[in-house]
Amino acid sequence: xxxxxxxxGFAYQETNCHIRYTWKDGVWSQGELxxxxxxxxxxxxxxxxxxQSAFEGLKAFRHEDGKIxxxxxxxxxxxxxxxxxQIMMAELPKELFLDAVRxxxxxxxxxxxxxGTGASLYIRPLLFGSGAQIGVNPAKEYTFIVLVTPVGAYxxxxxxxxxAMVSTDYDRAAPHGTGHVKLGGNYAASLLPHxxxxxxxxxxDLYLDPVEHKYIEEFGTSNFLAITKDGKxxxxxxxxxxxxxxxxGLCRLAAHLGIPVERRPIEFAEIENFAEVAACGTxxxxxxxxxxxxxxxxxxxxxxxxxxxxLQKLYNNYTAIQWGEQKDPFxxxxxxxx
Length: 338
Ligand code: PLP
Ligand code: COI
Known about the structure:
This protein is α+β, with helices and mostly antiparallel strands and about 350 residues long. It is built from 6 helices and 18 strands. The protein folds into 2 domains: about 5-150, D-amino Acid Aminotransferase, Chain A, domain 1; about 160-320, D-amino Acid Aminotransferase, Chain A, domain 2.
């Protein structure tokens, strides 16, 4: 496979195959590796009409010895099932999810980027209602697929700080809605505000709480975290944000490194107390944010270039665990082959 591994962006790249399972009458199929990236779908599938669809995102890393490791897949299995319960889809036995991830990676081994290129294999599980239903009801049939694609950085430039714009006219989630699960519909709701932020020159959009627009929620595709001027790791607590697996890992890593961790509602006005701000997520890893615009006010945070010292330390440690360059004290990595 001769891809330009070091210059991959976050874009879909065709691979050998995906894996596909179907659920009917209470039973999941055995799963099949399918070459074609197309799917033959009923025109009345609930995913198409009523948004009965949820997905996940995780990564596999090739270590220096050539072996492939998956990062925290069990967490994605749990989160996909919490999404499934929220919109009344069939749940997946954890073993089936983990086996699907392993089988599809093995069938696409040559697409796992070489060690040292900074690229990894992005794994995208997708669960949706594929049964026909014209009344608004859950489908009676479901499809689960896992596709893989090699990726580089989500935002070009690695730890180059980004600018974010607070979305003042749009929310991505409702107070008692579905922001805490990973539904396709949440991302549909974010497309227009994201486009408007992009048009205004901001690669990232930051959402405030949908009740008062007073507290910081999260970015469009990642959680919000700040390092306070007194050295704490601070991240948002809200019922309408996605529980990020990266954020969970960084909180545990920070505590392990002796950095105090605080998870609580964060008022936007507290921004004056932050020494460093970042977005975190599977795709964005840790992306520093050094400017946040809210209406006509511009807030500058942290260094103008690169990451601040605490974010840099977290980034170095977190990615060193992912790449097998440092001991994994948390048991986050699972080998794809025995
Ligand atoms: N928040 C949103 C809205 C996301 O889309 C993502 C990406 O998955 C995250 C947070 C980060 O979650 P994770 O770290 O599990 O990838
Ligand atoms: C991820 O980080 O895995 C995401 O799902 C974010 C985005 C690409 C939707």
